[in-house]
Design goal:
Layout: E1 4-15, E2 23-33, E3 36-43, E4 60-62, H1 63-110, E5 116-124, E6 132-138, H2 148-159, E7 164-168, H3 178-185, E8 194-197, H4 200-204, H5 210-217, E9 222-223, E10 227-233, E11 236-243, H6 249-258, E12 264-269, E13 285-288, E14 316-320, E15 325-329, E16 347-355
Parallel strand pairs: 5-16, 6-7, 7-8, 8-9, 11-12, 12-13, 13-15
Antiparallel strand pairs: 1-2, 2-3, 3-4, 6-16, 10-11, 14-15
Length: 356
């Protein structure tokens, strides 16, 4: 059998070509089998006269007896199909645009502030059994103004009851944003202290160095520029090793040489891709930011873009060096370049260092 085309249930008014001019309403199907079209008529209305036998309901009439009817109805049916197809394409286009707009709005308006608190538990042999050190790690604020979102971040940090707060760079994008950053830093409180290192945006905004360190210190935050800071808290000896951007091997070696193996050594680096193996013998934990976790992601796929000095690191916990030193990369708090996040929520990371 050749191609078969069926057009169903279209109501037509037929004017029969005989001397009586009989008029009737019909439902019909136009069915083409190969090269032999037929019209099947089924009466759906009331006749105003008696139909001749050849036009009786339910009888298949050959094309030769109803060619005009078939041609007219086929044209009408084709027009209706074209109209339906045109409307379907239009609906699909409008639906696609509406869906894309909703996704973009969500990535722009909701997800950049859809704050997530993650927790990581790490056993540390240098911490006495039964003791725990609660460390909150923040990074990549990219703060434009100290608004409701950053007040929420500060409040969420406080509710975690941190013993120690550590920040790993990129606080601003422009020098004029610094006052808002200082307002935010003033809200961060922890009994063992608040410590920070610089990121690339501090250099690009030309606010890096001693002047920035003094401003941070005025808000109770110690900015470490290739420096070591020692803390003795709850009977635990802790050293914060602050590696300055971009964590060159010389700076890493300098801090490693200054570290004491008996202390709990936590290294801070804005970028995650550097020579970690230099610190194999000293570091118990390395904290980094910089990547934003990719910022715009799709499930099960690699990030579309990661900044330079990210290396193989995206977000979460990694093990590096010969001794599998834990290295944590946070997705950060803010956004950079584009004010968007997609399947990559901002993050406050609570790291629980527990004694064994």
């Amino acid at each position: 059998m050749g191609r078969e085309k069926i057009i169903k249930n279209l109501q037509v008014r037929v004017r029969h070509a005989d001397p009586v001019h009989i008029i009737a309403d019909f439902d019909y199907s136009f069915i083409q089998h190969g090269n032999t079209p037929l019209v099947n008529m089924t009466n759906s209305g009331k006749y105003n006269s008696i139909l001749p036998p050849e036009a009786s309901p339910g009888i298949d009439l050959p094309l030769c007896s109803c060619y005009s009817l078939v041609s007219i109805m086929k044209n009408r049916a084709d027009s209706r199909i074209n109209l339906i197809e045109s409307l379907s394409r239009r609906k699909f286009l409008f639906g696609s645009l509406a869906f894309s707009g909703a996704v973009f709005a969500d990535a722009w308006l909701r997800q950049p502030t859809d704050l997530e608190v993650s927790q990581t538990r790490l056993p540390i042999s240098k911490i006495p059994s039964g003791k725990e050190l609660r460390v909150v790690h923040l990074s990549d604020l990219h703060l434009h103004r100290y608004d409701r979102y950053f007040r929420q971040v500060a409040a969420a940090t406080s509710t975690l009851n941190p013993d120690l707060i550590l920040l790993t760079g990129d606080y601003v994008e422009e020098a004029r944003n610094l006052s808002g950053v200082l307002d935010f830093l003033a809200q961060l409180k922890a009994p063992a202290g608040v410590f920070a290192v610089q990121g690339n945006w501090e250099y690009w905004a030309l606010i890096e160095g001693k002047n920035l360190r003094d401003k941070f210190r005025s808000k109770g935050v110690e900015l470490l520029i290739n420096q070591r800071a020692d803390i003795d808290y709850k009977g635990v000896a802790i050293s914060i090793l602050g590696i300055d951007f971009p964590s060159p091997s010389g700076s890493v070696q300098q801090l490693n040489d200054a570290a004491e193996k008996s202390r709990v050594n936590i290294a801070l680096s804005h970028v995650p891709a550097f020579q970690h193996e230099i610190m194999d013998d000293t570091s118990d934990l390395i904290l980094c930011g910089h990547t934003h976790g990719g910022q715009v992601r799709l499930p099960m796929l690699k990030p579309f873009h990661l900044p330079r000095h990210s290396g193989r690191f995206v977000d979460g916990l990694y093990r590096v060096g010969k001794k599998d030193t834990p290295l944590y990369v946070t997705r950060g708090i803010g956004t950079s370049i584009m004010p968007l996040r997609f399947f990559c929520p901002p993050e406050i990371n609570l790291i629980r260092l527990v004694g064994v």
